[in-house]
Amino acid sequence: MAEITDVGYRPGLNAPIGMDVVDFTELRSRAERRGIDLAGPQRPDFHHLIHVHADADPLPHTVDFTEHVIEPGGWLWVRPGQVHQYGALTRSRGTIVIWRPGFVTFDPSLPETPLLPAGSARDAVDLALRHLLADYADLGSMTLEAHNRSLRMLLAVLLLRLAHAGEAPSSTTSADGPFERFQAAVERDFTRTHRVADYAADLGYSARTLTRATLSATGRSAKSYLDARIVLEAKRLLVHTDRASADIARHLGFTTPGDFSKFFRKHDGRTPLDFRAEARGVG
């Protein structure tokens, strides 16, 4: 039976607490030891910052149904919970920084598409990466606590450099603002409740406050954001698993399969099974 592989954080033996660095060759070795098909759908519970070396071949990579190509010198950030699949990993070379949520205290506003720094921005990003890798390898010169603190700071610098490597600087947001709290609550509870009013009550905000904050952060209302998250999970399960539509409906918190089908069709224009067939190229 087809399924999404949930991948837990499992660093190398000599890795610091909460962060690790692997090259593509080591990633393939770890996946083989754990029985993970890198070309198949995986849902990690940690961050991936994928970098293709400047003198390597491009790397195809799919994240939640969007096919990307990471060009030489490019970067792609895959967030925890996203379903992603590697392309021809053996044809490219690169570095992947992985870390657990909370290792750095904020997430800069990086695009969910590959980033290709150029000019002085590229030089600054490359320098930040070299500094991070040098400290990562220098485990014995400081206490473990100091080493981890240093790596947190250096990873934050790398992320900030990437956030400012585009055409315009990206702003950072509070880790505990109304939208960020709503976002975290949606990730935790979207299979339990589909009502913005329930999230507002749980978080101590009004529904209007959540909508204003979500509009400011994403350009869509709180209800639209919540519905989109439910649709995304439905699509993941329809394409990457063989679960029946009724089973998916129950998992997502719908009272009946008919309610799920009506909701899905409203947002996608197709029934769940029609979407599955088209996405899989069947029929």
Question: Would you mind describing this structure in some detail?
Answer:
A hairpin with a 2-residue loop joins strand 5 and strand 6 (about 65-70). The protein is of the alpha+beta class and about 280 residues long. It is globular, with a radius of gyration of 20 Å. The relative contact order is 0.11. It has helices at about 25-35, 120-135, 145-165, 180-190, 195-205, 205-220, 220-240, 245-250, 255-270, 270-280, and strands at about 5, 20-25, 40-45, 45-50, 60-65, 65-70, 75-80, 85, 95-100. The strands form 3 sheets. A 4-stranded antiparallel sheet has the order 2-9-4-7. It has a 3-stranded antiparallel sheet with strand order 6-5-8, with no helix packed on it. The longest helix is centred in the middle third of the chain and has 20 residues, at about 145-165.
Defining key terms:
45% helix; alpha+beta; three-stranded antiparallel beta sheet; 283 residues; four-stranded antiparallel beta sheet
In short:
Helix content is 45%, strand content 14%. Mean pLDDT is 91; it is low at 167-173. The protein has ten helices and nine strands.
Can you lay out the helices and strands and say which pair or pack?
Blueprint (H helix, E strand, L loop, with lengths): L4 E3 L11 E5 H11 L7 E3 L2 E6 L6 E5 L2 E5 L4 E4 L5 E3 L7 E6 L19 H19 L6 H20 L14 H12 L6 H8 L3 H12 L3 H19 L4 H7 L5 H12 L3 H8 L4
Parallel strand pairs: 1-3
Antiparallel strand pairs: 2-9, 4-7, 4-9, 5-6, 5-8
